[in-house]
Amino acid sequence: MFVHQRNGSIEVICGPMFSGKSEELIRRVKRAFIARQTVQVFKPAMDDRYDSHAVASHSLQKMDAIPIRHSREIRDLLDPAVEVVALDEAQFMDEGVVDLAEELADRGVRVIVAGLDQDFAAAPFGIMPAFLAKAEFVSKLQAICMVCGAAANRSQRTIRSGGLVLVGAAEAYEARCRHCYEKPVATAKALLQDPEEASMPFPPKLAEG
Ligand code: ADP
Ligand code: ZN
C-alpha cells in the first residue's frame, strides 16, 4: 500500500438526543479495548443520568467513564500511554477541551467526541461547532421523530420547568424533525441571562474550577 497512515485525529459523533451518540461511542471504545489499546473515557460530572461513573445510553448500554468538571482535570488524569481518548456529552465541557483534543491528536492520540450539536432552542451547542470544524471525521446521527416518524435532528423540550440544570431523558425531551419541532418561547441565550424569567430552562455552561 502506498497510503501513509499516521495516527492522531479527532472524530465527532453528533446529533439530537436519542440519536444513538452514546451507543456509537460505546461501540467504538469497545473495539479499541478489543484491539488492546489504552483508552480513557471522560464525561462531565453534571451528567448523572443513570450512573455517575459511566456513560449510559438510553438503551441502557454502559461503559466506565471518569466524571470531570473542567478540562484541567482531564489533563491531570491523562495516562501518558493513552492511545484513545473518548469524551461523552462534550457540549457541556469548557473551551479548553477543544485545545486539549487538538494537542492530543497532534501527539498521535485518537480523540472521539460525542455531543449534542444543537441545544433545545436549535442553536449550535457550546463547543460543538468548534469540534465540528476541527474534526477529521464527523458522524451526524438522527433519531426518530416522535411526532411523524421521520429522521429527527432536533431535541424538543417537552416540559416547561424543572430547574436551571435539566439533564434529562425521555421525561423532559423528545426527538423531533425540522418540521415537527416547535421553537421554545424563550431562547437559550435569554435563559442564560435571566434564568428566573425563563419558562424553559437550559443547562448552563459548567462553572470554572
Ligand atoms: P444519545 O446518546 O444520542 O442520546 P443513546 O445512545 O443514549 O442516544 O440512545 C439511543 C437509543 O435510544 C436508541 O437505540 C433507542 O433504543 C432509544 N430511543 C428512544 N427514543 C428514540 C427515538 N425517538 N429515536 C431513536 N431512538 C430512540
Ligand atoms: Zn416529524
The profile of the biggest β sheet is: 6 strands, parallel
Poorly predicted regions are 196-209
> On the 0-100 scale, what is the average pLDDT?
85
Work out the count of structural domains.
2
- Going by CATH, the architecture of the largest domain would be 3-Layer(aba) Sandwich
Strand content: 15-25%
The radius of gyration computed from the alpha-carbon positions, rounded to a whole number of angstroms, is 17 Å
- Number of E-state strands: 12
Side-by-side strand order of the widest sheet? 5-2-6-7-1-8
Question: How many helices in DSSP terms?
Answer: 5
Query: In CATH, what is the homologous superfamily of the largest domain?
Result: P-loop containing nucleotide triphosphate hydrolases
CATH class of the largest domain: Alpha Beta
Helix percent band: 10-25%
Q: How far is it from the N-terminal to the C-terminal residue, by CA?
A: 48 Å
SSE pattern: EHEEEEHEHEHEEEEEH
CATH topology of the largest domain: Rossmann fold
Overall SS class: alpha/beta
- What small molecules does this complex bind? adenosine-5'-diphosphate, zinc ion
Shape: globular
Structural notes for this entry:
The protein has 209 residues and is an alpha/beta fold. The protein folds into two domains: 9-142, Rossmann fold; 151-208, no CATH class. It is built from five helices and twelve strands. The chain has helices spanning 21-34, 71-77, 96-106, 128-134, 188-193, and strands at 9-15, 39-44, 54-56, 62-64, 66-68, 84-87, 110-116, 137-140, 143-144, 151-152, 154-157, 173-176. β6, α3 and β7 form a beta-alpha-beta unit. The model is unreliable at 196-209 (pLDDT under 50). The structure holds adenosine-5'-diphosphate and zinc ion (ZN). Zinc ion is lined by residues 145, 147-148, 150, 176-177, 179-180.
